[in-house]
Amino acid sequence: MILHRDERFVVVDKPSGLAVHPGWADDERTAMHEVRDTLGQKVFPVHRLDRATSGVLVFALAPESARVFCEMFEEGRVEKHYLALVRGVAPEAGTIDHPIPRREGGPRVPASTSFRRVWRGEHLSLVDAEPHSGRLHQVRRHMKHISHPLIGDANYGKGALNRDYRERFGLARLALHARSLGFVHPWEGKPITFEAALPEDLRAPFERIGVVI
Protein backbone atom coordinates (compact mmCIF):
# COMPACT_ATOMS: atom_id res chain seq x y z
CA MET A 1 0.00 0.00 0.00
CA ILE A 2 1.39 3.39 -1.00
CA LEU A 3 1.57 5.89 1.86
CA HIS A 4 3.18 8.76 -0.06
CA ARG A 5 4.52 9.57 -3.50
CA ASP A 6 6.14 12.65 -4.97
CA GLU A 7 8.60 13.24 -7.79
CA ARG A 8 11.59 12.12 -5.68
CA PHE A 9 10.50 9.12 -3.62
CA VAL A 10 7.69 6.78 -2.65
CA VAL A 11 6.80 5.43 0.80
CA VAL A 12 4.98 2.11 1.12
CA ASP A 13 3.63 -0.19 3.83
CA LYS A 14 5.45 -3.51 3.32
CA PRO A 15 3.75 -6.73 4.46
CA SER A 16 5.58 -9.39 6.45
CA GLY A 17 7.02 -12.20 4.32
CA LEU A 18 8.12 -10.02 1.41
CA ALA A 19 11.83 -9.35 0.84
CA VAL A 20 12.76 -5.77 -0.04
CA HIS A 21 15.25 -6.33 -2.86
CA PRO A 22 16.25 -9.28 -5.11
CA GLY A 23 19.87 -8.71 -4.17
CA TRP A 24 18.97 -9.59 -0.56
CA ALA A 25 16.97 -12.73 -1.42
CA ASP A 26 16.39 -15.29 -4.16
CA ASP A 27 12.68 -14.47 -4.39
CA GLU A 28 11.13 -13.89 -7.79
CA ARG A 29 8.85 -11.21 -6.32
CA THR A 30 10.07 -8.57 -3.86
CA ALA A 31 8.77 -5.27 -2.54
CA MET A 32 10.90 -3.52 -5.15
CA HIS A 33 9.19 -5.48 -7.94
CA GLU A 34 5.74 -4.79 -6.52
CA VAL A 35 6.31 -1.05 -6.22
CA ARG A 36 7.99 -0.84 -9.63
CA ASP A 37 5.03 -2.55 -11.29
CA THR A 38 2.48 -0.47 -9.40
CA LEU A 39 4.15 2.81 -10.38
CA GLY A 40 5.25 1.69 -13.84
CA GLN A 41 8.79 2.96 -13.29
CA LYS A 42 12.11 1.90 -11.82
CA VAL A 43 12.58 2.37 -8.08
CA PHE A 44 15.72 2.33 -5.92
CA PRO A 45 15.88 0.85 -2.40
CA VAL A 46 17.54 3.17 0.14
CA HIS A 47 17.20 1.08 3.32
CA ARG A 48 16.00 -2.36 4.27
CA LEU A 49 13.46 -4.12 6.43
CA ASP A 50 13.83 -7.79 7.24
CA ARG A 51 11.61 -10.05 5.17
CA ALA A 52 9.56 -10.92 8.27
CA THR A 53 9.15 -7.28 9.34
CA SER A 54 6.19 -5.21 8.16
CA GLY A 55 5.80 -1.45 7.94
CA VAL A 56 7.15 1.78 6.51
CA LEU A 57 9.62 1.42 3.64
CA VAL A 58 11.10 4.09 1.33
CA PHE A 59 12.16 3.80 -2.30
CA ALA A 60 13.78 6.59 -4.29
CA LEU A 61 12.61 7.28 -7.84
CA ALA A 62 16.01 8.25 -9.26
CA PRO A 63 19.67 7.42 -8.53
CA GLU A 64 20.35 11.00 -7.37
CA SER A 65 17.50 10.84 -4.85
CA ALA A 66 18.71 7.42 -3.70
CA ARG A 67 22.15 8.82 -2.89
CA VAL A 68 20.59 11.57 -0.77
CA PHE A 69 18.46 9.10 1.18
CA CYS A 70 21.31 6.65 1.67
CA GLU A 71 23.37 9.45 3.21
CA MET A 72 20.48 10.43 5.48
CA PHE A 73 20.07 6.88 6.76
CA GLU A 74 23.81 6.38 7.15
CA GLU A 75 24.19 9.65 9.08
CA GLY A 76 21.29 8.90 11.42
CA ARG A 77 19.07 11.71 10.16
CA VAL A 78 16.03 9.45 9.88
CA GLU A 79 13.93 8.70 12.98
CA LYS A 80 12.62 5.12 12.95
CA HIS A 81 10.20 3.54 15.42
CA TYR A 82 9.32 -0.14 15.63
CA LEU A 83 6.75 -2.01 17.69
CA ALA A 84 8.16 -5.26 19.05
CA LEU A 85 6.46 -7.89 21.20
CA VAL A 86 9.15 -9.42 23.40
CA ARG A 87 9.49 -12.17 25.96
CA GLY A 88 9.45 -11.18 29.64
CA VAL A 89 8.88 -7.86 31.36
CA ALA A 90 11.23 -5.39 29.71
CA PRO A 91 12.54 -2.32 31.58
CA GLU A 92 10.38 0.79 31.28
CA ALA A 93 12.98 2.43 29.05
CA GLY A 94 16.64 2.23 28.17
CA THR A 95 19.33 2.42 25.52
CA ILE A 96 21.24 -0.61 24.26
CA ASP A 97 24.77 0.02 23.03
CA HIS A 98 26.12 -3.21 21.63
CA PRO A 99 28.18 -3.75 18.44
CA ILE A 100 26.64 -5.91 15.70
CA PRO A 101 27.48 -6.48 12.01
CA ARG A 102 26.18 -4.30 9.17
CA ARG A 103 25.73 -7.45 7.10
CA GLU A 104 25.90 -11.21 7.50
CA GLY A 105 29.47 -12.33 8.23
CA GLY A 106 30.76 -8.77 8.50
CA PRO A 107 32.73 -7.25 11.38
CA ARG A 108 30.89 -5.94 14.41
CA VAL A 109 30.45 -2.18 14.44
CA PRO A 110 28.93 0.23 17.01
CA ALA A 111 25.13 0.14 17.21
CA SER A 112 22.62 1.82 19.49
CA THR A 113 18.89 1.33 20.07
CA SER A 114 16.64 3.23 22.48
CA PHE A 115 13.42 1.65 23.68
CA ARG A 116 10.46 2.26 25.95
CA ARG A 117 7.89 -0.21 27.20
CA VAL A 118 4.37 0.65 26.05
CA TRP A 119 2.54 -2.37 27.48
CA ARG A 120 3.33 -5.19 29.87
CA GLY A 121 1.70 -8.53 30.47
CA GLU A 122 2.59 -11.26 32.90
CA HIS A 123 5.29 -12.75 30.69
CA LEU A 124 5.38 -10.33 27.73
CA SER A 125 6.10 -6.71 26.88
CA LEU A 126 5.39 -4.49 23.91
CA VAL A 127 8.20 -2.02 23.30
CA ASP A 128 8.68 0.95 21.01
CA ALA A 129 12.23 0.54 19.70
CA GLU A 130 14.17 3.35 18.03
CA PRO A 131 17.38 2.17 16.33
CA HIS A 132 19.92 4.96 15.92
CA SER A 133 21.99 3.00 13.41
CA GLY A 134 21.18 0.60 10.60
CA ARG A 135 22.67 -2.81 11.36
CA LEU A 136 21.62 -6.33 10.42
CA HIS A 137 18.62 -7.43 12.53
CA GLN A 138 19.43 -4.58 14.91
CA VAL A 139 16.23 -4.45 16.98
CA ARG A 140 16.06 -8.24 17.14
CA ARG A 141 19.69 -8.63 18.17
CA HIS A 142 19.58 -5.82 20.71
CA MET A 143 16.44 -7.05 22.45
CA LYS A 144 17.94 -10.55 22.59
CA HIS A 145 21.11 -9.00 24.05
CA ILE A 146 19.11 -7.77 27.09
CA SER A 147 17.34 -11.16 27.37
CA HIS A 148 14.04 -10.03 25.83
CA PRO A 149 13.95 -11.74 22.40
CA LEU A 150 11.07 -11.07 20.04
CA ILE A 151 8.14 -13.44 19.84
CA GLY A 152 8.13 -15.25 16.50
CA ASP A 153 11.86 -14.72 15.91
CA ALA A 154 13.25 -17.91 14.36
CA ASN A 155 16.85 -16.64 14.57
CA TYR A 156 17.13 -15.20 18.07
CA GLY A 157 14.04 -16.41 19.90
CA LYS A 158 12.89 -19.75 21.29
CA GLY A 159 11.25 -22.23 18.94
CA ALA A 160 8.98 -23.78 21.57
CA LEU A 161 7.68 -20.40 22.67
CA ASN A 162 7.12 -19.29 19.08
CA ARG A 163 5.13 -22.47 18.37
CA ASP A 164 3.05 -21.93 21.49
CA TYR A 165 2.05 -18.41 20.42
CA ARG A 166 1.34 -19.58 16.90
CA GLU A 167 -0.94 -22.39 18.10
CA ARG A 168 -2.70 -20.50 20.91
CA PHE A 169 -3.02 -17.02 19.41
CA GLY A 170 -2.41 -17.38 15.67
CA LEU A 171 0.79 -15.32 15.80
CA ALA A 172 2.48 -16.92 12.80
CA ARG A 173 5.10 -14.26 12.03
CA LEU A 174 7.83 -12.15 13.59
CA ALA A 175 6.23 -9.69 16.02
CA LEU A 176 8.07 -6.65 14.64
CA HIS A 177 6.44 -3.73 12.80
CA ALA A 178 8.08 -0.56 11.47
CA ARG A 179 5.38 1.80 12.70
CA SER A 180 6.84 5.17 11.67
CA LEU A 181 9.67 6.88 9.86
CA GLY A 182 10.41 10.60 9.95
CA PHE A 183 12.94 13.03 8.52
CA VAL A 184 13.35 16.55 7.22
CA HIS A 185 12.26 16.49 3.58
CA PRO A 186 15.59 16.84 1.71
CA TRP A 187 14.16 19.10 -1.03
CA GLU A 188 11.44 20.98 0.83
CA GLY A 189 13.10 21.42 4.21
CA LYS A 190 9.98 20.46 6.19
CA PRO A 191 9.77 17.73 8.86
CA ILE A 192 7.64 14.84 7.63
CA THR A 193 6.60 11.56 9.27
CA PHE A 194 5.00 8.48 7.73
CA GLU A 195 3.08 5.90 9.75
CA ALA A 196 1.87 2.38 8.98
CA ALA A 197 -1.03 0.91 10.94
CA LEU A 198 -0.60 -2.43 12.65
CA PRO A 199 -1.41 -5.12 10.03
CA GLU A 200 -4.13 -7.69 10.59
CA ASP A 201 -1.65 -10.55 11.04
CA LEU A 202 -0.37 -8.74 14.15
CA ARG A 203 -3.49 -6.85 15.23
CA ALA A 204 -5.67 -9.95 15.61
CA PRO A 205 -3.12 -12.05 17.57
CA PHE A 206 -2.29 -9.04 19.77
CA GLU A 207 -5.99 -8.68 20.52
CA ARG A 208 -6.24 -12.35 21.50
CA ILE A 209 -3.16 -12.08 23.71
CA GLY A 210 -4.57 -8.95 25.37
CA VAL A 211 -1.95 -6.50 24.17
CA VAL A 212 -3.13 -2.90 24.59
CA ILE A 213 -1.53 -0.25 22.39
From TrEMBL:
<keyword id="KW-0413">Isomerase</keyword>
<feature type="domain" description="Pseudouridine synthase RsuA/RluA-like">
    <location>
        <begin position="9"/>
        <end position="145"/>
    </location>
</feature>
<protein>
    <recommendedName>
        <fullName>tRNA pseudouridine synthase C</fullName>
        <ecNumber>5.4.99.26</ecNumber>
    </recommendedName>
</protein>
<dbReference type="InterPro" id="IPR006224">
    <property type="entry name" value="PsdUridine_synth_RluA-like_CS"/>
</dbReference>
<comment type="function">
    <text>Responsible for synthesis of pseudouridine from uracil-65 in transfer RNAs.</text>
</comment>
<dbReference type="InterPro" id="IPR020103">
    <property type="entry name" value="PsdUridine_synth_cat_dom_sf"/>
</dbReference>
<keyword id="KW-0819">tRNA processing</keyword>
<dbReference type="InterPro" id="IPR050188">
    <property type="entry name" value="RluA_PseudoU_synthase"/>
</dbReference>
<dbReference type="Pfam" id="PF00849">
    <property type="entry name" value="PseudoU_synth_2"/>
</dbReference>
<dbReference type="InterPro" id="IPR006145">
    <property type="entry name" value="PsdUridine_synth_RsuA/RluA"/>
</dbReference>
